[in-house]
Amino acid sequence: MLRLNVKFNASTTSLSVNEGEDIPAIKKKISEKISCLDDEEICIIFAGKELGEHASLQAYCVQENSVLHVVKRKSNSVLKNPSELSYGAAAMPAANSDLRIPAGHGKNQYFVFCKSSCKTIKGGRLRVRCASCKQGAFTLNREPSCWHDVLTPGAISGDCLLENCDGNKAEFYFKCSGHVSEDTEETALVLHLIKPNIMDVPCITCMDTVSPVLVFPCESGHSMCLDCFATYCITKLNERAFIHSEELGYTLLCPAGCDKSLIKEIHHFRILGADDYDRYQRFGTEECLLKMGGVLCPRPGCGQGLLHEEGQRRIECESEGLRGCGFVFCRHCLEAYHEGSCQSRIEAASSLMNEFRVDPEHAVRAQWEAASQHTIHDTTRPCPNTACKVRVEKSGGCMHMVCPRCKFDWCWLCQTEWNLDCQGEHWFG
């Protein structure tokens, strides 16, 4: 028996079903549980698709605690057949050898920061809903094929089947795969720079080959293991050496100093841990204040941010409630306010700290893109259907393949029949 969550309007109810039950039988059970629904008018949506009448839950990879969205069918809605969607599959001659996932790397292609119960970086599962009403009763016109499709609002269109919503834009979101949650609103923060190290690229600093890794957005795609990335972040944080970008905020670039390598999504710095991430946010706010021409109170234990008039030398950290300490200091030398010229100041202690250095030779060997050119040498795979085995080429699109000969649904990465794990963990790679 499977325990499912059925969501209708604003309420969610549980439903127990057999794995092999077909969709009409499921609809009948739902109508018995929700009295205002007739089984003939019920429309069931799961993961961006409407469940067809002549199929079972197994065919749609529905598993324990999955959420089924139930609506009354709109008069103008049309049932979409998943096989009608384009997956970029084409028949190829059986000349090239097979291409498989390297052993030990697993199937998970997405990583998230679980902000609810796990409080750490975990594997993620991709989900979809209507961008207007934020409900999952939404069918896609096509499946996602790249990060742009997922991260750009409205990149993929579809149809919301709720009566009171005319939304036609899809919104993708991620859930943590590290725990089971019945909260349908719970989401996780996607970390799209963290990837499984399927090409065995060494870390730019320690040169170990581990998985997953963070791949910097530079042209060379330098990779770094998560342990070294955490060390890199804490070192730069202690040195207050993060970069303040007006567009991106308080961030870091590739440790090799590559151009155009600033990390755009600051949630990657959650790897610092709760306390240091709070410190990171505070430092970022302070840097923003300094860019605006402000100053921080230099008295130990205070650090209150202060804005002052241009050219003003005497600064008072006004005490108000729990904020401010009343210290009066010189804007130029940050010592207690004085008349006359400022005394020379001692060099900042941060100059004595150890810098985070990268060996140039390591940087060459840790290039993600260079490794991929040497690793990926074949472009086709055989259909996993033992009765078919036609060679298929993937020219773009998502990981969900449909064999052009036998119409078998399969996963490009796993080379097995398409299932919920594939859809949740590596829908588009």
Description:
With about 425 residues, the protein is of the alpha+beta class. The protein is about 15% helix and about 20% strand. The strands form nine sheets. The protein has a five-stranded mixed sheet, with helices on one face. The chain has a four-stranded antiparallel sheet with strand order 11-8-7-12, with helices on one face. A hairpin with a 2-residue loop joins strand 1 and strand 2. It is globular, with a radius of gyration of 27 Å.
Notable traits:
single chain; 7 helices; alpha+beta; 429 residues; 25 strands; globular; 5-stranded mixed sheet; 4-stranded antiparallel sheet
Major beta-sheet overview: 5 strands, mixed
**Helix content estimate:** 10-25%
- Please give the order of strands in the largest beta sheet: 2-1-5-3-4
- Label the structural class: alpha+beta
The oligomerization state is: single chain
Shape: globular
Radius of gyration: 27 Å
- Low-confidence regions: 77-105, 344-353
The tally of beta strands, per DSSP, is: 25
Strand content bin: 15-25%
